From TrEMBL:
Family: Belongs to the universal stress protein A family.
SUPFAM superfamilies assigned: Adenine nucleotide alpha hydrolases-like
Residue ranges constituting the UspA domain according to the UniProt record: 13-135
UniProt-recorded name of the protein: Universal stress protein
Length: 253
């Protein structure tokens, strides 16, 4: 199996912006993705239909997003787009011609608050490409540091999920934590045995130590988790600790 992602000719990395700090965090994250894939970064600001558009606010949001993208990586090729409609509808349309769609998410402030908002819910249910939901902390910083966590399972398409998690680990310079939930894995047959994974011939050992940062910064999950996300309640027993309060990368099959 190739360690490269599938070719993405004619596509873009799409990021939805609304002028918020959370959206700018998503822009910075998406800019690195676009440069790595050699794709343009398509910055989309949606104006509600039927209302009086505030062109000044829209222009300011788009310019701030472009500045954030360029400041994070000068090699980014940014495109600014303003579209009339509902954000969830527009971004679902954009997903049909995107390698990835990225949006920002503010921190959850109450236990009974939905785990994701309306736009993320729509994308989780029906996006035609992977969706990155970049969570912000209460201080405005992006909740993306720490390990990248992914579940090894028997689900259809799990190889694609793990492939993207490994790609993100390489791109972001992060440790990838693989949680083995396969029904017939040796780890599950011997739950009392501590296992450390070593890539043969690489000279690298991958364990649970992550330079003091054991928290999950990004959870990469597949179709089943994406389908369940809009109705997920807290607390939950997901194998990825801290899910879904970290940033999310949803990979639909």
């Amino acid at each position: 199996m190739s360690d490269s992602l599938p070719p993405s000719e004619g596509l873009a990395v799409v990021v939805g912006v609304d002028g918020s700090r959370a959206a700018l965090n998503a822009v910075r994250w998406a800019a690195a993705e676009a440069v790595d894939r050699d794709l343009p970064l398509r910055i989309v600001h949606v104006v509600a239909s039927g209302g009086a558009p505030d062109d000044g606010a829209a222009d300011a949001a788009l310019l701030a997003a472009q500045d954030a993208a360029v400041m994070s990586t000068e090699r980014v090729r940014a495109q600014r787009v303003q579209i009339i409609g509902r954000p969830e509808d527009i971004l679902l349309q954009e997903s049909r011609h995107a390698a990835m769609v990225c949006i920002g998410a503010r921190p959850r402030r109450a236990a009974d608050e939905p785990v994701v908002g309306r736009v993320a819910t729509a994308l989780a249910r029906a996006s035609a490409c992977p969706v990155a939901v970049i969570r912000s902390r209460t201080d405005g910083t992006a909740h993306t540091d720490g390990v990248i966590s992914v579940v090894l399972s028997d689900d259809v398409g799990n190889d694609d999920v793990v492939h993207l998690a490994m790609h993100e680990g390489r791109l972001r310079g992060r440790v990838v934590r693989q949680i083995d939930r396969r029904a017939d894995s040796w780890v599950r047959r011997y739950p009392d045995v501590h296992v450390e994974t070593v890539a043969a011939g690489s000279g690298h050992q991958f364990g649970w130590e992550t330079d003091g940062h054991g928290d999950v910064g990004l959870a990469v999950v597949g179709t089943a988790d994406a389908d369940a996300l809009p109705t997920l309640t807290m607390p939950n027993c997901h194998p990825i600790l801290g899910y879904p309060n970290c940033s999310l990368l949803l990979v639909r099959q």
